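User: Assemble these into one structure.

Assistant: Restating your components, then the assembled model:
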Amino acid sequence: MKNFTSVHDVPQIDALVKKALAYKADRFKDKTLGAGKRIGLLFLNPSMRTRLSTQIAAQNLGMEPIVFNVGQEGWALEFEDEAIMSGSTVEHVKDAAPIMGNYFDILAIRTFPSLKNREDDYSELYIKQFIKYAGIPVVSLESATLHPLQSLTDIITITECLNNTTPPGRGEAGGKRPKIVLTWAPHVKPLPQCVANSFSQWVNAWGKADFVITHPEDYELDEQFTKGATITHNQDEALKDADFVYVKNWSTFKDYGKIYNNDPEWMLTNKKLATTNNAKVMHCLPVRRNVELSDEILDGPNSIVTQEASNRVWAAQAVLSEILASQK
Amino acid sequence: MKNFTSVHDVPQIDALVKKALAYKADRFKDKTLGAGKRIGLLFLNPSMRTRLSTQIAAQNLGMEPIVFNVGQEGWALEFEDEAIMSGSTVEHVKDAAPIMGNYFDILAIRTFPSLKNREDDYSELYIKQFIKYAGIPVVSLESATLHPLQSLTDIITITECLNNTTPPGRGEAGGKRPKIVLTWAPHVKPLPQCVANSFSQWVNAWGKADFVITHPEDYELDEQFTKGATITHNQDEALKDADFVYVKNWSTFKDYGKIYNNDPEWMLTNKKLATTNNAKVMHCLPVRRNVELSDEILDGPNSIVTQEASNRVWAAQAVLSEILASQK
Amino acid sequence: MKNFTSVHDVPQIDALVKKALAYKADRFKDKTLGAGKRIGLLFLNPSMRTRLSTQIAAQNLGMEPIVFNVGQEGWALEFEDEAIMSGSTVEHVKDAAPIMGNYFDILAIRTFPSLKNREDDYSELYIKQFIKYAGIPVVSLESATLHPLQSLTDIITITECLNNTTPPGRGEAGGKRPKIVLTWAPHVKPLPQCVANSFSQWVNAWGKADFVITHPEDYELDEQFTKGATITHNQDEALKDADFVYVKNWSTFKDYGKIYNNDPEWMLTNKKLATTNNAKVMHCLPVRRNVELSDEILDGPNSIVTQEASNRVWAAQAVLSEILASQK
């Protein structure tokens, strides 16, 4: 694995999941794999879980992580080719990235969408420019349209749950495919589509589940990620008999970056959960309590959000491990 | 020792002081005690000495410290139970803390008082919520009402001075109890009562000194911390024959968070020092020169503020060492 | 070497350059030299290359670097003696620096000029106060008037180019002195004179080149740094037959901190480069593309800006190594 920016960079999802779970069982099993190597963690916007988990993952492999909050600590970067830089940007990615490539062995980057111009955001210019000019492996810590470390974590967490079911439940051992539902939830702000896009892309590529996406009208996601899933505006129908319910808000894709319907009825409650197959409830966090998800769900026995967030470390460690191995 | 949030967490103050002074004599004596362990240092407000000294202390014990400036680098946290999070907070401590508990082995937190609502501040909701939900040892890097690492440092520094007096001065060796005076000082801003509360609590618990607190009318501190000390509005009387003078500003406790009298006459000067027993002058820093404390004192032979600030490392190292030992 | 704040701290430039190039050949050759030692990196203003390269250099030597963004993470510092601190500054360097001296083995500081008061800036009060009160070696990460780590890097990079010329070109091996030109370039903001001052000071002290400085009228630099160089307002004449062209903007020195002429004609282009001796083009970065330097130069074969920025690591490593060696 050279870069890690989407599921397309992963030769075999289950092998990567297995690797992550091996690190969860023994975090220091490869503690010298990254000795003498450095990873730069560049944040163009804030992050907590992603920052901490990736830093910890790198340290578990013996690498030296260096965190750099671009903008706060450094410079506003320019990404457009041929820009006449007489405005607010002070350094071009064409100049900054090659230096990062000399300073580090792996570069991890957190970028963000404007939510103003869909074509710009979906071109993934920022991360593509870093890949083009850095000359070293690049790991996405969330980009304008995708969040692959989160999605890998989600598949790891789902796999763990399926493995732990006794008698063997759905999934490989149980013979029956689990039903995974991604449901839109209300929020107070227009959010990126990254997590929803990425989760859809990974569940589809994984191919081991019946996958249903439910959201109000006008919240259709980009088909390049959702194709293969059943899509419905009827949340009740979607939730029925679900084994996993992934809750997430996103803003509109077509009329880009808007909040249309923000119906509080879409918030998941215990009452709604009653129609599922005692589903595990997932969320990437941070979550707005009692707006996106009710206290009763988050504090109840079906929530696996803490397990999910904790697995971020093992997802990052598996990815860095693969990249280090391919550099040998 | 499981948590460290006040003197009540310390089984035996002198034993902890002794441990700290042993680290001062040989900082790397336990350099593998924390190997493979991580401490998260969460700052909800800025810090210099506390941040650096705790980070260094952790490294001296072989731990990996990870600093995270919440808010600046991450998220605004919600602490109220059952909050409907449609406002400015983006993550609840109930969700954030357990993840910290999975990422780290020890969690150290710097919180702050609002200085607006006394009941809220004195409930210590922030640090209590972290303790409740993190599931790992929590160290206070200053909370809404207390600053125990500072106070431990202060007792360490006083002990050092008493040990170094020849012929043996006051204190254990000398047979006579030292006189310690905490005096209020002017300032330009309303400050928390943390350092004054905590110093009072520790000196009282230590029990090896005659303890006098002096301040203008209306600056009475919370009795739960000061009980046992002699309290007077007459600074001259208080300073007489003092062995240690601890200088600190604080805002009012009763009519909460206000500045009443801000009389510059309360600033300590060499003239005032003349009536003491050649007292050592202490301050937790940062200090507003020529407002809280005069240049002549800070640059003179009686100031031990640098020694005091430097001892912060050994205080933190002793505390982390105790917590690590209890985790074995 | 005790401190590193200008070329005057360096006993022998070529020996330091040689040391840096040895680290470039084998970065971990002295990987335990700094074991058990700590360097504090204090930033009073933002930095990317300097921050990352110094942090990496310290780690290569086995030191623990601790980055602290003063102001952002900590306190506004006061530098004036006898200040009555009732304003916005919360801690005096007289109190902060000695504590840094206790916490760290080496202190590296990034300060900045106001560009408002020339006497103040050129007094280098900030860095001098740190040296006076810290009691440990101080390394400039750029000060109000100089940027010695950048200049050392520049001499390293020039030396590398001269060594790599076959048949041996100008410089020591070739027998002919290279021609180095420092040319002013347009910019959108008034910038410090640091890099230009420092480059001039180092090239003059190195003494192995014909050194020409060119800039529009009114942009004369301080003679204490430029003395020995040929100075001309005719850029075309200056560039003729040049082996190295160092491009940099600076604001006026005499009528301090102003932009007078900002003629875009001063931007270096391929056409201008044609009259040189196939000159290597240098810039300290960050660079405003198509304002200070054209895309065609930066993306062309003559630019060595990436090599130059990458050499920052080895410059810092050589300096820290010298200081560590002198502490033994």
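The radius of gyration of chain B is 20 Å.
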